[in-house]
Structure formats: structure tokens, C-alpha cells
Amino acid sequence: MELDIRLSAEAVSVGYHNKPVLSDISLTLPKGELCILVGPNGAGKTTLLKALAGLIKPLRGTIVLDSQPLETYTAYERAAKIGYVAQGSSINWPFTVQELVAQGRFPSQKWFGVEGPEDRLAVEEALDITDLQMYRERLVTELSGGELQRVLIARALAQKPELLVLDEPVSHLDIRYQIGVMELLQKLVAQGLSAIISLHDLNLASLYGTSVCLVAKGRILKQGTVHEVLRAELLKEAYSIDLEVEPHPEDGSLPMVYYQSRQRRLPQDE
């Protein structure tokens, strides 16, 4: 069965000041799937996500969103299609949760920012989906990191996008909030939204990703299922470290990545 493609990149190079960070990138994201970018620090994941969100223009190649070149969308059209949350986003102004989420409707408000029934409905739905109704009057400056991350995702959802692009959405969160954010994304994807995000945690990528894209050495080393990408030899090529890949203890269909303990790495006594 032919896949219905939401986003694709063909022979794309991305970078700054005509200097590529990543070259000859090709990837596809079908509708209703979650693609997770993994790779070492400085590999270019953030730059790639910015290009896929239309925030920077590729040096070469073409990015296509819903069968149309991304560069042909206006800023308003792009905002209606793509919800983007940057890495380490912080809010220092004391907006309420509801006020911040409502900012996601700005691209759709053409008449001097006047809020209409459709805008109010979109905000309510975003608050419902992210389980933030009880926080609507709280100041965002008083929220925990995990709560704020959900608010930022809710703001992106209020745009009514068809694609979410999230850069390190669980960075600096404890394991409870990491799982909460990933389960939220999994629920959204199950409802038909497409998402492409970056993560450092390879095991979270295995647990929640529909597909994984391994970025390293100025290119995509591999895009595919978690089994195709999370392989010891590929991970060593990307991270320059020996890692072990074993079946999940409760779900053997999922690969888990481990760093070999020092004791196991030491030569055994004769």
C-alpha cells in the first residue's frame, strides 16, 4: 500500500552563510506518524528541524509539505500547517496559560487580532488535549518545566496544524514528565497528526517512535524502523562508542540501548 506522505525532503543541504551543516538529506514523513531524530550533539538536528518547519531556507534541494514545495507557502499558510516548538523555550512574561495558548491563534486572526468563536474553540480543544484546563488561569512563570512544555505544545496545537515540529521537547524534564510528553505526542499521532521531533534518549525513541532518523557526520546515516536504525554498529558509527542493543525486558519487539558497565568492560581475571 502506497503511503500518504505529509512531509518529504529530497537531496536537501541545510546550513548557514552558504556553509552546509547537513548535506544530501532525504527523508519522508507519512501522515499520522512520529519520526524521531537522534544523533550526537552538534550533528545538525536543530538546523534540519528549522528547515523542515520553514524557518530557514535549504541551501540546496526541495522540502515538500502536502505535495507542495514548502518555500511556496506564505508565512501565514505555513503557520496554519506547521506547529513548531523550539528547544529550551522559556516564557518570562506572566501570561496565564489560556493567554499563552491563545497566541497560537494569531496567524489565523486577520482582522486586527480579534478573537472569534473558531479561535475560542481551538484554544479549548488544545487545553483539553494537553490536560491543562485546570491550569488555565495559572501564570506560566509559576509552572514546572513539564507543565510549561505541555503549554507550549498546546499553543502549537491551537494553530490547528497538520504537522508538529518539536526540538528536544523533553530536555531538562524528569522521567515522569518525559513520559507524559511522549504519551501526549503518541496520542496526537494516533488521532492523525504527523510529528517530527528530536531526542537524545534512544530508548524513548524506541518506545514511542514510528520511525527513527539517525543524524551524524553531516548526513542521515539511516532512516527506518527502530529495529533498522537502533543497531549497535550504526550507533557506534554515529556516537563513536560501543553500545549494546537488547530486547526490551517486557516487550521483546522493542530494542533497548545500554552502555556496557565498566565492570563488564574490564578484562576478566584468569
Entry keywords:
single chain, Rossmann fold, 4-stranded antiparallel beta sheet
Describe the structure.
This protein has 270 residues and is an alpha/beta fold. It has a single domain (5-90, 158-265), classed as Rossmann fold. 32% of the residues lie in helices and 27% in strands. It is built from 10 helices and 12 strands. The protein has helices at 45-52, 75-81, 97-102, 117-129, 145-158, 175-190, 202-208, 226-229, 232-239, 262-265; strands spanning 5-16, 19-30, 34-38, 60-65, 68-69, 82-85, 163-167, 194-198, 211-216, 219-224, 243-247, 255-259. The protein has a 6-stranded mixed sheet with strand order 6-7-8-3-9-10, with helices on both faces. Strand 9 (211-216) and strand 10 (219-224) form a beta hairpin. Helix 4 packs antiparallel against helix 5 (145-158) and helix 5 runs parallel beside helix 6 (175-190). It is globular and about 55 Å long. The N and C termini lie far apart (57 Å). The model has no long low-confidence stretch (mean pLDDT 90).
